[in-house]
Amino acid sequence: QVQFVESGGGLVQPGGSLTLSCTVSASGFRFSIYAMGWYRQAPGKQRELVATITSGGNTTLADSVKGRFTISRDNAKDTAWLQMSDLKLEDTAVYYCHAKRAFTFADYWGQGTQVTVSS
Q1: 22 vs 36: CA distance, rounded Å
Q2: What average pLDDT does range 23-41 have in this prediction?
Q3: How far apart are the C-alpha atoms of 21 and 9, rounded to whole Å?
Q4: Nearest to 3 by CA among 20, 32, 27
Q5: How many C-alpha atoms does 74 have within 13 Å on its Cβ side?
Q6: What is the pLDDT of residues 35-92, one digit of tens each?
Q7: Which is it for the CA torsion 7, 12, 14, 15, positive or negative?
């Protein structure tokens, strides 16, 4: 069974920073071959892609977070991070970690962590 440990969410003022982490654990789970991603879902809205990082380290970011968010990973620690800076009210959402193995149906989600940006 694949388990995610997500942490780092919380309440922050506009302009502040947070770093989310996602550690994946499972017997036989080869973290290094999975693309990792962060998605978010705000109340009343659909879940949307925030950032992805491939097994090779290539990253993509949603236009709304470019220049403010950074995604990274450490395969030795089975962990991915989402560094968020200059947070805005509209960044408020539940953030979900996602693992996907290319060309397979292997697709896993974390439980989500709440990020609230408020003054």
Answers
A1: 9
A2: 93
A3: 9
A4: 27
A5: 8
A6: 999 999 999 999 999 999 999 999 999 999 999 999 999 999 999 999 999 999 999 9
A7: negative
Average pLDDT across the chain, whole number: 95
Tokens of 24: 């994946």
Cα distances from 110 to residues 15, 17, 74, 86, 113, in angstroms, run 26, 21, 17, 25, 9
Distant-in-sequence, close-in-space partners of 104: CB < 8 Å, separation ≥ 6 = none
Which DSSP category does 103 fall into? T
* For the chain, the helix, strand and coil percentages under 3-state DSSP, each to the nearest 5: 10, 50, 40
Cα–Cα distance, 109 to 96 (Å, whole number): 7
SS3 call for 72: strand
Q: For residue 1, name the pLDDT band (cuts at 50, 70, 90).
A: confident
N- to C-terminal Cα distance for the chain? 40
Q: Which residue has the tokens 């800076």?
A: 85
